[in-house]
Amino acid sequence: MLAVERLNSIISVFRERKIAVIGDLILDKYLWGSVDRISPEAPVPVVDVKKESYNLGGASNVAWNLSALGVKTVLLGVIGKDENGKLIRGLVEEKSIVPAFVEDDSRPTTEKTRIIAVSQQLLRIDRESKEKLSPEIVRKILSKIRDISEEVEGFIISDYGKGVVSQEIVQACVFSGKPVFVDPKPKNYHLYKGITIMTPNRKEAYECVKASPEESIEFVGKRIMEDLSLDKLLITLGPEGMALFDGDRVKKIPARARKVYDVTGAGDTVISVLATVRLSGGTWEESAILANYAGGYVVGEIGTAVVYPDTLKEIILLNLQV
Ligand SMILES: Nc1ncnc2c1ncn2[C@@H]1O[C@H](COP(=O)(O)OP(=O)(O)OP(=O)(O)O)[C@@H](O)[C@H]1O
Ligand SMILES: [Mg+2]
After folding, report:
1. Contact status, residue 146 vs residue 63, Cβ threshold 8 Å
2. 103, 150, 174, 282: least buried by Cβ within 10 Å?
3. The whole model's pTM is what?
4. Which domains does the chain have, with CATH numbers?
5. Mean pLDDT of 237-261
6. Which of 57, 94, 93, 100 is nearest to 77 (CA)?
7. Catalytic amino acids?
8. Is residue 257 pLDDT above 70, yes or no?
9. Gap from CA of 104 to ligand 1 centroid (Å)
10. 244 CB within 6 A, ligand 1
11. 3 has a pLDDT exceeding 90
12. Residue 312: other Cβ atoms inside 10 A
């Protein structure tokens, strides 16, 4: 059994951590309104917009999770030369994250706009490019990785498949000798050789090795570890918690039963807490257990949520006191 005191002492050094996040930056935009009529132009509802709001998405949501934990966070990524790029930069700075952005005038800042009326999402509009980055932009990112690798204790690669994560970028992080935590995109599976740990969800794990649904999670995990020569792997299992693979051992960690409101962003919280606890001296098992608590907490909150150190301490008390 884990001692509450030990976990609390790990949490109390979160603020001494310094971690870099690299990946696809996304601006989540929400237009909130009401519907009173059907358009005379086409059989579609007309939304009268009352409010507009923005959130950090993709890799920038991972950075927001880290910063909420008290970690000094550097965020590397690509923005367009546009208004949305400025918006992301503003949101990032507001949350005490240090931006290390490369501006690319050949692509837009990735934007996902949700139109919501009567508490229901009517439409999502995406503006993005999934093209590979130009060699010049890649060079700029690599030089930023080199600049910060001395000062950070680890890297989180948050791959949303929009083109930022490439072999060179993964290898530059690995080459730094610092631990590299990866939230993968199955189509980029082959890029992640030499990393420290990967955190796919169940679907992504099966896709990575093209396993049929009858295969066991143990089989799938072992295949991934062999393919990428990994010693650690964390497969998140949604309402079933997670499976931590450590060398030859597999440990299933059951989910915390609680009311589920919104599962989006749980994966971002999991990798943030996992990396922070691990770099704060936690064992892999402690890191996964706290990440699982944190994941269970955020799915019970409305909207993409983050977890603060005090909340994490309360959750530990609730779970370990009995
Ligand atoms: N329904 C649930 N009940 C309890 N805990 C949950 C539930 N769904 C997710 N979690 C927690 O969140 C973690 C990550 O969830 P999941 O496996 O769905 O990741 P994901 O699909 O990567 O999420 P995301 O939507 O952010 O990409 C789980 O390991 C678990 O700890
Ligand atoms: Mg995920």
Report:
1. no
2. 150
3. 0.95
4. 4-21+59-109+129-320 (3.40.1190.20)
5. 93
6. 100
7. 268
8. no
9. 33
10. no
11. no
12. 23
